[in-house]
Design brief:
Layout (H helix, E strand, L loop, with lengths): L2 H10 L7 H7 L12 E2 L2 H9 L8 E5 L5 H8 L3 E6 L5 H10 L4 E5 L19 E5 L2 H12 L10 E7 H8 L9 H9 E9 L4 E2 L6 E8 L8 H13 L5 H4 L5 H8 L12 H10 L1
Parallel strand pairs: 2-3, 2-5, 3-4, 5-6
Antiparallel strand pairs: 1-8, 6-9, 7-9
Bound molecules: S-adenosylmethionine.
């Protein structure tokens, strides 16, 4: 490699750690389907993902499932203070290597993110953490629901920048009268503003999943309409559980016609025609 080529190569590298491919080889990280492992090995792409979370300099960031650390390295290179929760013990050694390259900036937790108490991350510094993750698809929707329906609002996080399968991302940002509109769209749209920022092709992952993925950026609303998350969950579950039926039928067990009359919604309408505020009104009348 010539001098100029070497200088350009150094500029393009985000850190002095080994390439992700050699880390995967060294530590024998053969992807496990049971843990939803589809690794991103392109540090340009992980840097692009990290940038979508906005300013990270000095920000606490929670990352779920760092795996071999491609996104973790991009977050750290942009100045984040990362708490990374990883279930796969095989990933701990490579993550410790990253931690040594960024002393005091990476806190690794070996555990299940579904059981993790995120409040313990708060004392990291005075700022609310941003959640950034290439989520394991098998638990991604459940994690999102836990964060959307957390008890206190505004929530413990400042924003969420998350990778999902394209089909799930479309459901998260869906609006009424669209095929993707359902429970997830209502629960997300009620308290947050969400948008798809870009798609990522299957070839970007090792191993390649069957479908395209999308990065979604989600910001909590400061003053969402007041409503019980549990009741909104109940209403949307019943309404979209039988989405082809009229509401007077699908909501029958929850008081059907009486409930709908209370908030002035025509019982012959179907769930997908109601906007989020109408669902909130129904939940409040329940
Ligand atoms: N962040 C890495 C990347 O972008 O290459 C890996 C992403 S991979 C899609 C999902 C990661 O989540 C894997 O490392 C997997 O071991 C981890 N994981 C799966 N289930 C988990 C859980 N319940 N809690 C914490 N980590 C989990």
């Amino acid at each position: 490699m010539g001098e100029i080529e070497h200088a350009v190569f150094q500029l393009m590298k985000i850190d002095n750690l080994p390439p992700l491919r050699s880390i995967i080889k060294t530590y024998g990280l053969i992807a496990k389907r049971s843990l939803g492992q589809n690794f991103l090995l392109d540090l340009d792409l992980t840097s692009k993902i990290a940038r979508q979370a906005g300013d990270l300099d000095g920000y606490p960031v929670i990352e779920i499932g760092p795996g071999p650390g491609g996104l973790t390295r991009a977050l750290l290179a942009q100045g984040a203070l990362v708490t990374a929760i990883e279930q796969d013990e095989r990933c701990l050694a490579p993550l410790k290597e990253i931690s040594s390259a960024y002393p005091g900036k990476l806190h690794i937790i070996n555990g299940d993110a579904l059981d993790f108490d995120f409040a313990v991350v708060l004392p990291y510094n005075a700022r609310k953490p941003k959640i950034v993750a290439n989520l394991p698809y098998n638990v991604g929707t459940q994690l999102l629901l836990n964060w959307l329906l957390c008890e206190s609002w505004p929530p413990f996080y400042k924003s969420m920048t998350l990778m999902f399968q394209r089909e799930v991302a479309e459901r998260i940002v869906a609006r009424p009268d669209s095929y993707a509109y359902g429970r997830l769209g209502v629960l997300c749209g009620w308290q947050t503003n969400a948008q798809i920022v870009f798609d990522v092709s299957p070839q970007a992952f090792i191993p390649s999943p069957k479908v395209t993925s999308s990065l979604v950026h989600i910001v909590p609303k400061t003053a969402p309409s007041s409503c019980s998350a549990q009741k909104l969950g109940q209403i949307t579950k019943a309404a979209f559980g039988q989405r082809r039926k009229m509401l007077r039928q699908s909501l029958k067990k929850l008081g059907g016609e009486i409930l709908l009359a209370k908030v002035g919604i025509d019982g012959t309408r179907r769930a997908e025609t109601l906007d989020i505020e109408e669902f909130v009104a129904l939940a409040n009348a329940l």
